[in-house]
Specification:
Blueprint: E1 2-3, H1 6-16, H2 25-35, H3 43-60, H4 62-69, E2 70-77, E3 81-83, H5 84-88, E4 99-107, E5 113-121, E6 127-136, E7 142-151, H6 153-165, H7 173-180, E8 183-186, E9 211-212, E10 218-224, E11 230-238, E12 241-244
Parallel strand pairs: 2-7, 4-8
Antiparallel strand pairs: 1-8, 2-3, 4-5, 5-6, 6-7, 9-10, 10-11, 11-12
Helix pairs in contact: 1-3, 3-4
Length: about 260
Amino acid sequence: MRWLAAAGLLLLTACAGGPGGRDDPGARADRAVLARLPPVAEPTSVVATELAFARAAREQGQWTAYADYAADDALIAVPQPVAARDWLAGRANPASADRWAPRDVWSSCDGSAVLVAGISVDPAGEWSRFTRIWQRDDEGEFRWTHSAAAPDPALTRNRREQDRARSAPTDDAILVEAASFIRARTAACDTAPAQPLPAGAPGGDAQGTASASRDGTLRWHWQAEPGGRAAIVGRFWTDGGWETVPADAGGPAGG
């Protein structure tokens, strides 16, 4: 496990979401060069993209940002997985966007796919936990392909108690957290995942097939939760075999 330095993340965030945005000609040229390089695990790049994504939601509109950062075939749980492009098409942005920050990151060995888990808060002060899969496209750019979130009543109670204890609560507390610490793990590279996933692992997309990084060291699937909600469950390869991303990824229940 690695702790990602705040200063490096802030620098990477500026690069991921700087002047001109994702469609700036210079940015496209840079991505074309990166796409020709051998793949490598760089969790900080995805963290920077996630933070830039969150900033774009605040500045440009929540659903506008979701559409801008999504892969063409992305799936979003609302609460069951649906095609994100169709669901987002023509959807009006809320007056105020949710705020979110990554807390835990799991990367495949080759860096082609990354699972991000974090916390979010809506304008009403209700807290949730989210899980998102980012995959590197043919241009070397990360786009989210799977996204799910679930309300966390315990986290909401805890945060409201913290706000009452503060003399001057701040709306940017979640952003301060993002710059404080983010836990990162990379799948094992010394051994290939020769053994299959644990028996009974359900499929990964809306049709029930498994999803995986290009090297197979990070895998994920949709799982039905109480109340009809779909969650993303991830598994990553270690020297000791397959490990499942903890159900409470993103931090302890109390926040």
